[in-house]
Write a structure and sequence with these properties.
Blueprint (H helix, E strand, L loop, with lengths): L2 E6 L9 H8 L4 E5 L5 H12 L4 E8 L4 E4 L1 E3 L26 E3 L4 H7 L5 E4 L6 H11 L5 E8 L5 H18 L3
Parallel strand pairs: 1-2, 1-3, 3-8, 4-7
Antiparallel strand pairs: 4-8, 5-6
Helix pairs in contact: 1-5, 2-4
């Protein structure tokens, strides 16, 4: 299986982004680090995908949560409570004027939940309205046959080891599952 995992650079004045720290520790995947920029983060991913084919694309981002969150829905909305790394702070804006309000992840989230401990992984029904969601929504609108989606990881560095183990296990599940 060819799997791409993306993560984000630090933002909002922070020195680290836990998603990129997890990304750095993963094995047996292609990795792509994205800047925290509305639209531009996706354009970096889209450019990468022009030259590479994947069976799965798993985008990671950090969030103030205690568990790994499997995001089910990408929303057609940009509404930032803090600016991105270029000081953009869109408010009540659609990502696509003619796109659907929401798009469902194509990752096998039920299979992942079935194989993971519910105490460490939770369902989440949308990825918010910040850059994480912007990348997720734009990725889901691409006309590609790749299974893809978004996972939020806890933004606490003291969760790094357990979070990395969980994400590596999800990758193992995807590899074992194949394209079924």
């Amino acid at each position: 299986m060819n799997i791409l995992v993306t993560a984000f650079k630090p933002f909002n004045g922070k020195k680290e982004n836990v998603s990129s720290m997890v990304l750095n520790q993963l094995k047996n995947v292609d990795k792509l680090l994205l800047d925290v920029l509305f639209e531009d983060a996706f354009l970096t991913l889209k450019k990468h995908l022009l030259d590479h084919h994947y069976d799965y694309i798993v985008c990671l981002g950090e969030a103030p949560c205690e568990h790994v969150h499997l995001e089910h829905i990408a929303l057609n909305m940009m509404h930032a409570s803090i600016p991105d790394n270029a000081s953009n702070k869109p408010q009540h804006q659609l990502i696509s004027d003619d796109g659907p309000l929401a798009i469902k992840s194509t990752l096998p989230l039920s299979d992942i939940m079935h194989h993971m401990s519910a105490t460490h992984v939770k369902d989440s029904f949308h990825a918010g309205t910040y850059v994480c969601n912007d990348v997720f929504y734009r990725l889901m609108t691409m006309q590609i046959q790749t299974s893809r989606g978004f996972i939020h990881v806890p933004n606490k560095i003291d969760h790094l080891e357990s979070t990395t183990t969980i994400i590596q296990e999800i990758i193992h599940i995807l590899n074992k599952r194949g394209l079924n």
